[in-house]
Structure prediction request, 250 residues.
Amino acid sequence: MLTIRKLRVRYGRSMNALHGVDLDVPDDGVLAVLGANGAGKSTLLRAISGTLRLHRGLVTAGTIQYGETRLDRLDAAQIVRHGVVGVPEGRQIFARMTVAENLRAGGIAVKSAADRAAARRRVDALFPLLTERANQRAGLLSGGEQQMLAIGRALMAGPKLLLLDEPSLGLAPKLVERIGEAIREIHAQGTAVVLVEQNAAMALEVADQAVVLAVGSVALSGAAADVADGVHQHYLGAPAQEHKSLARWS
Ligand SMILES: Nc1ncnc2c1ncn2[C@@H]1O[C@H](COP(=O)(O)OP(=O)(O)OP(=O)(O)O)[C@@H](O)[C@H]1O
Ligand SMILES: [Mg+2]
Prediction:
């Protein structure tokens, strides 16, 4: 579905953040992208979503192929119209607008009213809490609820490929689980996902495939279960007995 080859990204004049990254998102799959702070995870999502320029970044080499389309030649709005929609770091909802207004804003580029209504029903079913809070100002939601709203808003655009940047960041374990379940459900409904996470345990439970980035390069990639073992051996010198044990280093 998405094929990235030899991708290089630079910020400003000299900060090389990605040095020739190769990765594939299988059709309708979930790809987890793991790695330490500064590894280049957000940079990768910005490159896919065409938002690097907002951060004074630039793709300097390589290709991002999405079906027949070269995403690296399009701008952010065109990429959304192709069905690739991102939720950036730090759940950037419109705090002064209501929950319902935030969701409406997510669907603003969708031309068909029937498609918009269907997307809204999908969000309502996935996050009933957002329906209950429809008229509340989004800034008054808890962190977990704001994350749900940020994901819901992205779903309103009708994505075929959803890019999530650390959706579990700062959330209590129960909410992390809830977000993990929501991602699984979104995937089951036929939307592919690139899931950037520091919470390796959650991400590897949800994903089919995984890559580990280290200082701008792919250090490890493969089936999620194999990457879980690799990560565990690398950090703790023993294969993972179960994914939950990864939580200790994540
Ligand atoms: N706007 C920017 N200008 C210059 N350098 C940047 C910019 N954004 C990121 N970088 C640098 O690029 C590298 C990759 O950053 P990136 O934000 O992609 O990492 P990350 O894996 O998402 O980290 P984190 O887990 O902390 O979110 C880092 O060295 C970072 O300092
Ligand atoms: Mg990041």
Notes: The two ends are 28 Å apart (CA to CA). The longest strand covers residues 15-25. Strands lie at 2-11, 15-25, 30-35, 57-66, 69-70, 84-87, 161-165, 192-196, 209-214, 217-223.
